[in-house]
UniProtKB/TrEMBL annotation:
<feature type="signal peptide">
    <location>
        <begin position="1"/>
        <end position="23"/>
    </location>
</feature>
<dbReference type="InterPro" id="IPR013780">
    <property type="entry name" value="Glyco_hydro_b"/>
</dbReference>
<dbReference type="Pfam" id="PF22848">
    <property type="entry name" value="ASD1_dom"/>
</dbReference>
<comment type="similarity">
    <text>Belongs to the glycosyl hydrolase 51 family.</text>
</comment>
<comment type="subunit">
    <text>Homohexamer; trimer of dimers.</text>
</comment>
<dbReference type="GO" id="GO:0046373">
    <property type="term" value="P:L-arabinose metabolic process"/>
</dbReference>
<dbReference type="GO" id="GO:0000272">
    <property type="term" value="P:polysaccharide catabolic process"/>
</dbReference>
<feature type="domain" description="Alpha-L-arabinofuranosidase C-terminal">
    <location>
        <begin position="321"/>
        <end position="494"/>
    </location>
</feature>
<keyword id="KW-0732">Signal</keyword>
<keyword id="KW-0119">Carbohydrate metabolism</keyword>
<dbReference type="InterPro" id="IPR055235">
    <property type="entry name" value="ASD1_cat"/>
</dbReference>
<protein>
    <recommendedName>
        <fullName>non-reducing end alpha-L-arabinofuranosidase</fullName>
        <ecNumber>3.2.1.55</ecNumber>
    </recommendedName>
</protein>
<dbReference type="InterPro" id="IPR017853">
    <property type="entry name" value="GH"/>
</dbReference>
<dbReference type="Pfam" id="PF06964">
    <property type="entry name" value="Alpha-L-AF_C"/>
</dbReference>
<keyword id="KW-0378">Hydrolase</keyword>
<keyword id="KW-0326">Glycosidase</keyword>
<dbReference type="GO" id="GO:0046556">
    <property type="term" value="F:alpha-L-arabinofuranosidase activity"/>
</dbReference>
């Protein structure tokens, strides 16, 4: 009997020790600079602007503001945007563009008509039109990404708008641009062929068949005007049970492959949550990077299928040109990092991404704009996460929720930034309460000096910056490491970017 008790005790002790060892086991991130995905297109650090409520009038364009410059733009906003190095700006829609007559927004401002915008039930003054949009892009150093009216608009509307923007002197619409004070073409590089045309909320909603008939002809006319313009077809935006969005994308790709350069993906990921945007569960929000991965990977598979069927040699990429991380608190900062991590993980297919809205990148106040938490996260990525996306192996604990299973607590990407001789590691700790001790194994390459860890965090996930108080900042520290191993503890509910110098 004593032997049995002793044996049982020993087994219990071994079990407890094993459990303790398991509990103490660190997470691991394995990085091999030879395991490369593709070059990251800097256009994933782009933005979207649409004249909804005060997004344009009051936040960007406000001639009556004490901060207004000679163009009517808020200089405090322009100065902050310059710091972010936004690569392109998609404009003017959004739902707005599907009822927009672009000629209402050109010429003398006192002669521009005020029109009712049915998309958002508001009066559009047309004081910010094509010329002002192009000026905004030039001021912040961004490329022009024009979205034409694919709802109520005609083929002539589309081609005349591009001629106005890109035409040389000697034609009616190009000369009209010159008459209104812009001798040089705007050099629009990207043109979206309509916005969310599959959506019943859209003015001029079309079936996939009708959309393709219009878009193919619009794209053809635009290419005849300027063969260098990159064309973006309107991908699905109507996500509902039944996966109609997959059918839309498949049809559009089947008909338009070889004639377009991008297929747009619009996804506001909170739609996937139980309760939608009203859901306040932190762990649920932290799972939404998986929803973005799913939308990208499904669309990528459809692109591959269409490429094989068509034997086209003209590649098609994803333009993820509408997404939102939220409105400026710490949670939004972590949501933005999850989106950008997904785009980096899929650098081989996502070549454009435009955050909704450009104004959400800064904090807005009548007393002056300021750096919100989203600003800080976007800045770390747009300046450092450039180069080649690496295929990272992450081993850590995970969790489940109503939408997803096996959600890793660490969301990780890595980038080989050869221009700066660094490896950049981006890590979101999705755990609300626990720090995660992690071994970072650099499995190839030679490294030198100390790493720099840039941390964005706060005591509460609801913490927000204001004009007077900015508790969410980038906190940097030097981290020593030996050989090719670095030990780091990622704080709860945080985003960390680590810069590791390469010899």
């Amino acid at each position: 009997m004593k032997k049995i008790v002793k044996l049982t005790f020993c087994l219990m002790a071994v079990s407890l020790l094993s459990a303790a060892a398991s509990a103490q086991q660190n997470a691991r991130i394995k990085i091999d600079i030879d395991r490369q995905i593709d070059t990251i297109d800097p256009n994933i650090y782009s933005a979207f602007v649409e004249p909804i409520r005060t997004v344009v009038y009051g936040s960007i364009y406000d001639p009556e503001s004490p901060f207004a410059d000679e163009n009517g733009f808020r200089q405090d906003f322009i100065d902050l945007l310059k710091e972010l190095n936004v690569r392109s700006v998609r404009w003017p829609g959004g739902n707005f563009v599907s009822g927009y007559n672009w000629e209402d927004g050109i010429g003398p401002k006192d002669q521009r008509p005020a029109k009712r915008d049915l998309a958002w039930n508001q009066i559009e003054s047309n004081q910010m039109g094509t010329d002002e949009y192009a000026k905004l892009c030039s001021l912040i150093g961004a490329d022009n990404f024009l979205c034409v009216n694919g709802g109520t608009g005609t083929l002539d509307d589309a081609r005349h708008w591009v001629e106005y923007c890109n035409g040389e002197a000697g034609t009616y619409y190009a000369d009209l641009r010159i008459k209104y004070g812009n001798e040089k073409p705007f050099n629009v590089k990207y043109v979206g062929l309509g916005n969310e045309i599959d959506g019943p909320w859209q003015m001029g909603q079309k079936s996939a068949e009708d959309y393709c008939k219009w878009a193919l002809e619009a794209g053809k006319l635009i290419s005849l005007l300027d063969e260098d313009v990159k064309l973006v077809a309107s991908g699905a935006s109507l996500y509902r049970p039944g996966n109609d969005w997959v059918d839309w994308n498949e049809y559009v790709l089947d008909k338009m492959i070889g004639k377009i350069d991008y297929l747009s993906v619009h996804r506001y990921a909170t739609e996937a949550l139980p309760g939608g945007r009203a859901n306040k569960v932190f762990s649920d929000h932290m799972s939404l990077g998986l929803d973005i991965d799913e939308k990208i990977e499904t669309t990528q598979a459809l692109i591959k299928k269409a490429m094989v069927k068509s034997e086209s040699e003209r590649p098609v990429y994803i333009s993820f040109d509408e997404y939102s991380p939220g409105f400026g608190g710490l949670l939004s900062s972590l949501m933005l990092a999850q989106h950008l991590n997904s785009f980096i993980r899929h650098a081989d297919v996502v070549k454009m991404a435009n955050i909704t809205m450009i104004t959400n990148l800064v904090g807005n106040s009548p007393e002056g704009d300021f750096k919100n938490s989203v600003f800080h996260t976007f800045s770390l990525y747009s300046h450092n996460a450039l180069g080649t996306a690496l295929d990272v192996k992450t081993i850590c604990d995970d969790y489940d929720n109503e939408v997803f299973n096996n959600i890793p607590y660490l969301d990780v990407t890595a980038v080989l930034n050869e221009a700066d001789n660094k490896v950049i590691i981006n890590v979101v700790n999705r755990h609300e309460t626990d720090a995660i001790e992690t071994n970072i194994d650099l499995q190839s390459g030679e490294y030198t000096g100390k790493a720099t860890a840039n941390l964005i965090n706060a005591e509460s996930i609801d913490t927000r910056n204001t004009k007077d108080a900015q508790p969410v900042q980038v906190e940097s520290e030097q981290v020593s490491f030996k050989g090719n191993t670095l030990l780091y503890s990622f704080p709860a509910h945080s985003f960390t970017q680590i810069e590791i110098p390469i010899k």
